[in-house]
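Much of what follows relies on a compact textual record of a protein's fold. An example makes this concrete, so a full record is given next.
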Amino acid sequence: MKRLKDTKNYYLNQFRSNMPDVQTIPDISQLKQKIALLYLYMNKHLGFREAPRVILTKSEENANKQELGLTGYYNPQDKVVKLFITNRSISDCLRSASHELVHHWQNEHGMLNAMENSNGHYAQEDPNLRKREYEAFLYGSILFRDFQDEKRYGPSKVNNPLPKIV
């Protein structure tokens, strides 16, 4: 039991150290803590090889200027998850984090090929990246839902493995 606690503290500290303070959400420390806990939960199910760097940033540069602006993205070359957090709830930020963490897992397993299409339609035009988006939405959403339920009601007695995307 002590070893699990040491591992948890290690990941919490490692994850926190990658997140600079941004004064956009009044309870930024609560958001950081919840992202770290979400990472640990997803790590239990996906088995990350290393924690990505997470950057929390003001959304003004993107989402607030466009109705359909980005809420976050993953950079596979730098292994960075960037989340836009201005005017978003903690739950909404966590949902984006969950999706982007799946992309990090995919990258670690060689599933993300170079995104050569610069017109922004890579998720529609590249068949492999289309599958990766399906995975990120499916796995990210269900793992986030399970994370929420575990925090609300305690651990589930049923083990529901993630389905394979073919």
User: Anything to note?
Assistant: The radius of gyration is 16 Å.
